[in-house]
Amino acid sequence: MTACNNKPVKAVSDTPKSGSIHISVDETFKPVVEQLIHVYQNTYPDTKIIASYKSEADCFRDLQSDSTRMIIVAKGLTKAESDYYESKLSFKPTWDILAYDAVSAVINAGATDSLFTMKQLKDLLLAGEGAPHPVVVDGNNATSTVRYLSDSVLKGGTFGKNVMAAAGSKAVLDYVAANKNAIGFVGLSWVGDQEDPGQQAYMQKVRYALLQCTTCVSDTFAKPSQATISWNMYPLVRPLYYVLKENFTGLGNGFVNFMSLERGQLVFRRAYLVPGKMNFNVRKVDNR
Fold it and tell me: Contact, 9 vs 3, CB < 8 A?
């Protein structure tokens, strides 16, 4: 078959309930996305969502290839990026917020310093070699965590020589667990699940640093949680986005709908992120 402009049209081989697609996911969201895929594939056994976990920059590079249908990252598309994909694909990709995540500051379980103002945090990220607190992040400048800290804390500044890169979020936690004075930064879904045995084992070796609430009237310090994200108390919060290249009702749209509606939003809530599409409140009811 050919379209009106005589370009070949690729046969559609997937639907929301069958087929396979490749997606690329920011590594910092791996725990929660693995849960989402597990639930979706158990619901629709004829589907296969093949996820590659990598840096944010690599996810956007993958989006330019034909093989990657969707990416899950910490930023949406700019107008220039949207226009670029429209010129390449003849349609604009869809994108939106799915949930809200915290960039969690973690310290060694035996650390003596646990309270940090935003100025102190900025000074830590700017410090030179030999600083009392080595800082470890989940990769080089291509990761969403590094970009977020640079944009939101340093306001575009350059990291100091005491900031080092680890090979992913798990390596950040391992480094902080082994170094008493270290401070590391990971996504909340790596440490926030209070019912995950692996995460709770890590939380015996590391703990949250408490960061200054910049919107509070009193001198308040907060750890990352659903409550402090929702009430704008924890200062390092970022959205989680999907970006989808699919202009038909395929598996990509099916997975996006699942993540956006009740069951998928409950998975985000269960992973201790804040759902971006639905507000789940507990209300007292008198059944008498």
Answer: yes
Could you read off the pLDDT of 210-237 as tens digits, one per residue?
A: 999 989 888 899 999 999 999 999 999 9
DSSP symbol at 8: B
Average pLDDT, the chain: 90
The token duo for 25 is 């996911």
Q: pLDDT (tens digit, 9 = 90+) per residue, 266-280?
A: 999 999 999 999 875
Assess contact for 22 and 52: CB atoms under 8 A: yes
Distance CA 56, CA 85 (A): 17
In whole angstroms, give the CA distance from residue 264 to residue 32. Answer: 10
Give the position of tokens 């979706």.
40
pLDDT tier at 128, thresholds 50, 70, 90? confident
Kindly report, residue by residue over 171-210, the tens digit of the pLDDT: 999 999 999 999 999 999 999 888 888 888 888 999 999 9
CA distance 36 to 22: 15
CB 46 within 8 A of CB 14: no
Rounded-to-integer distance, Cα 233 and Cα 221, Å: 8
- Which residue in 184, 243, 263, 224 sits closest to 100, CA to CA? 224
Strand 19-26, strand 47-54: pairing:
parallel
Rounded to an integer, what distance in angstroms lies between the CA atom of residue 42 and that of residue 217?
A: 47
Q: How far apart are CA 166 and CA 185, in angstroms?
A: 10
Burial 171-189 (b: 16+ CB within 10 A, else e): bbbbbbbebeebbbbbbbb
